[in-house]
Amino acid sequence: MSASDYQEILKYYELHETIGTGGFAKVKLGRHLLTGEKVAIKIMDKFALGDDLPRVKTEIDAMKNLSHQHVCRLYHVIETSKKIFMVLEYCPGGELFDYIVSKDRLSEEEARVFFRQIVSAIAYVHSQGYAHRDLKPENLLIDEKHNLKLIDFGLCAKPKGGLDYRLNTCCGSPAYAAPELIQGKAYIGSEADIWSMGVLLYALLCGFLPFDDDNVMALYRRITRGKYTIPKWLSPSSTLLLNQLLQVDPKKRITVKHLLSHPWLMQGYSDAVQWQSKYPLGHLDEDCITELSVFHNQSRESISALISEWNYDQMSATYLLLQSKKVRGKRIHLRIPSQTAHASATQSASLGSEKAVTSEDAPDCSDVPDAFGSMEFSDAASLSEECPLEEFILNTCGTKQQSRHDTQPGGTEFTLSTPVTRKVASKKHANKENVGAESALRDELPFALPAPKASFSKSETDKQVQGTLFQAPTPKESQFTTVTPVKKPKIPTNTYELTATEVLPERRCHSVDLDLNIAHVDSSQKKRKAKLFGSLERGLDKVITMLTPGKKKRFSRHGPRKLKAHYNVTMTQLLNPDQLLSEIISVLSKKQVEYTKKGYTLKCQTKPDFGKESMKFELEVCRLSKNEAVGIRRQRLRGDAWVYKRLVEDILSSCQV
Ligand code: 6BB
Asked: What does each C-alpha distance from 446 to 190, 196, 283 come to in angstroms?
């Protein structure tokens, strides 16, 4: 990176470790200097964006209009000559995908808590005229209160004539795409989102996808047939709801309006899903205005007027972050940044314009290894207790940032990935249909949702299922068993398949397309593998997964990093990290997975296969801070989440430890 690229963002934020790198974006953790609030910063290189530039514009435009308790908030947009920075709400729980995988599958109660939030977010997004079009568990992040936040609006559509206008662009991830969409028909965005919600609910309740196949054409055939298996653990009411969501005919599919008070979503709740925004943009918080007006020594009126412009500049960001602080019951107080170069720039620029600063004279601030003070990010991305340092973000050119928050050494670059969205058709067409789409002539009334209840209902967010989130693991299967890939036998009939309407709950899930001669693992093998991540997590003796808030960070340059227990960390019974590392390396070599070794981290990459993108992920041998046991941190960097899940299951289960 060059210093000039980052000069502007560093006026307002501290930059910390990278938590995701995707096709065209990098996501870093950061801290807003004035409020001290943690943020996620999506950084895009304009040149590298190329054809994806419209997608970024779409995302920014949509997020500027959306303000909802289950939609990730956009705080600030900074554009320089080379970069676009989007400052976004901080969601330390990471992706819902990883959470599902860590638990194998969710209980119906926990799935309901999440699904109500998803319905709330989607009802709101639709009410604002948008269809998301890329709903999947990778695009739902978990915040610090364990609530979901919808991200990635890059493929969303806002038809000019309203959501009942048909769209033509086929986009999103194939496994979540509605049948009408993959058939290339003109489709209604909201109906396509409902289908994806069906796939999502299935993934929550089952831990695998309803329609899955390594071969995209076979996958499309499964989707268009709309047949999926009903695992025996699904309750009749869950099965019924899935059937209503996963209707091949979009006109027979349940609508958001009906979902809000659907019996399945109401079980254990007295109120329908609350979909209206708790934080409408039109309403300004008095306390936040007061704090800003005192800080800037300006009248409340002029501050209110500045905020109401919603320029997504420092003023918007400061207001929104103060508001978020207040909502979380924290004291809202703006601090004067300490007198570092960037801090004084922050103050002088805090009310100024958001002009791009790209000083070409500035020395190059490439990431330089050093002991840079990292703030405590106790979350999915920053699990470190002891961090040998790998990459550092400089605050001012040539000056290592000394955090003002009693920070500890750390700041390791985690290079995780922003999920790469695979598009069924050309990515260039994102949102073409926003202009002049043909009316769907639906017989339904335009989007009409029930009015908010007068009484204060128990909120979506405070209704958590207690005791189910961090349960003590129970032994299930022996870990690290060798799984040899088995070619799928050709079976002549499709007797194992069930349609959504032919519900046989006692049937075990077999997601095989039996009349297609496609070689892949057989169903029992698949089943075993599909369970493996979960069982790897659950074995009491060998594996412990839980989220524990880490406190002290100690620093050591020797041996593997010490990490907090987390659901992305699999613990083993081994005590020798080097033995585990060499075992993983030998498995990677056998499986022809390329890797580069950096300390105890293996940056892995699969060879690009014909028609398939290569998969990137990290496996890191670490020590669990609690008991010195050796563990493996795994993190997807790029590629399909479910393919990644299977591959890593396969690698870990092949380790002879
Ligand atoms: C975002 C985020 C917001 O992240 C790699 C891609 C917000 C991410 C986050 C986190 C873990 C720990 C701490 C913070 C808007 N768009 C994208 C975002 C994309 C990454 C998600 C994780 N996988 N907070 N965090 F994810």
From this structure: 11, 21, 26
